[in-house]
Amino acid sequence: ESAVNRIAAGEVIERPASAVKELVENAIDAQATRIVVDIADGGRTLIRVTDDGHGIAADDLPLALSRHATSKTSGEDLLNIHTFGFRGEALPSLGAVGRLTLTSRALGSDGAMELRVSGGRQDPPRPAALRQGTVVELRDLFHATPARLKFLKSERSETMAVTDTLRRLAMAEPAVAFTLRDVSDGGDRVLFRADGAANLIDRLARVLGRDFTDNAMSLDAEREGIRLTGLAALPTYSRGNAVHQYLFVNGRPVRDRMLTGALRGAYADVLAKDRHAVAALFLTCDPTKVDCNVHPAKTEVRFRDAGVVRGLIVSGLRHALAEAGH
Ligand code: ADP
Ligand code: MG
């Protein structure tokens, strides 16, 4: 494995949570309805994602593991992306930083195949037993890069980051059933579970609590082709920190200072300085208005016109607050 490949891999995969994010997004892109994530030791020794999606054809398995091979975009329409994945970087990166086993059975195929990669070296595919979908198992993350291993936080922190990643994806995909289990030391402890939900509100109630959904305002505002929906808490339901603010752009969980700043600004007159609104905000717009290709890990976005988005959030929330009598 070349140093260049390993550096690129490190940029996509920083910690177990980033591996989980990439693998779960792949499962969602494959139209999975049930996704099970098993981790051990905070994901350091094991991450296993099992899905019931459309699988990968036997002939395509080696391709799925080669750099910049993606079945999801032609390359010309990078600005027009409807799937989570589009770079074709995740699986090769994971194969470079850990011991990867990819087992898959394509829809309609009469058997499953398995492929192992370690340190970037592939074994030839061989037949395996799997009824449906795909299982990706990643063992010993960063075993070949002790410097990266050293940067991992405690098992507890890494587990929390994995859980947070899964909660965000669960909010982005209400209909999909998610399970996260800690299987350390042969155990089987459910850390997070959400059955397929009929709608966003039910999913938010599951992930953020019925208390939140019962004390939240429903949002629907639009400005210059950008639409804001979701739920934001009434001022009476606030928290002492801002961790429960979730943002989604065109269905992707994102983190963005501008967006959280706009949220804070909208509540400035109705919340004390040390209080924060719980919120799940969904922005949708024509994909050409937003660039989600800023960073390999894709949690950052850049809007063509940030001012419009900021204005939309502030006015959308203030309008909802006014309607609720604040
Ligand atoms: P990307 O998601 O950007 O296309 P990845 O490296 O994450 O790149 O995956 C490479 C390819 O492998 C995907 O384009 C897809 O064709 C296939 N693939 C990966 N994971 C799955 C999965 N769980 N189910 C079906 N196909 C998958
Ligand atoms: Mg992907």
TrEMBL record:
Domain DNA mismatch repair protein S5: 204-322
Keywords in alphabetical order: DNA damage, DNA repair
Domain of life of the native organism: Bacteria
Record function comment: This protein is involved in the repair of mismatches in DNA. It is required for dam-dependent methyl-directed DNA mismatch repair. May act as a 'molecular matchmaker', a protein that promotes the formation of a stable complex between two or more DNA-binding proteins in an ATP-dependent manner without itself being part of a final effector complex.
Family that this chain belongs to: Belongs to the DNA mismatch repair MutL/HexB family.
Protein name: DNA mismatch repair protein MutL
Organism encoding this protein: Jannaschia pagri
Residue numbers of the full-length protein present here: 3 to 328 of 590
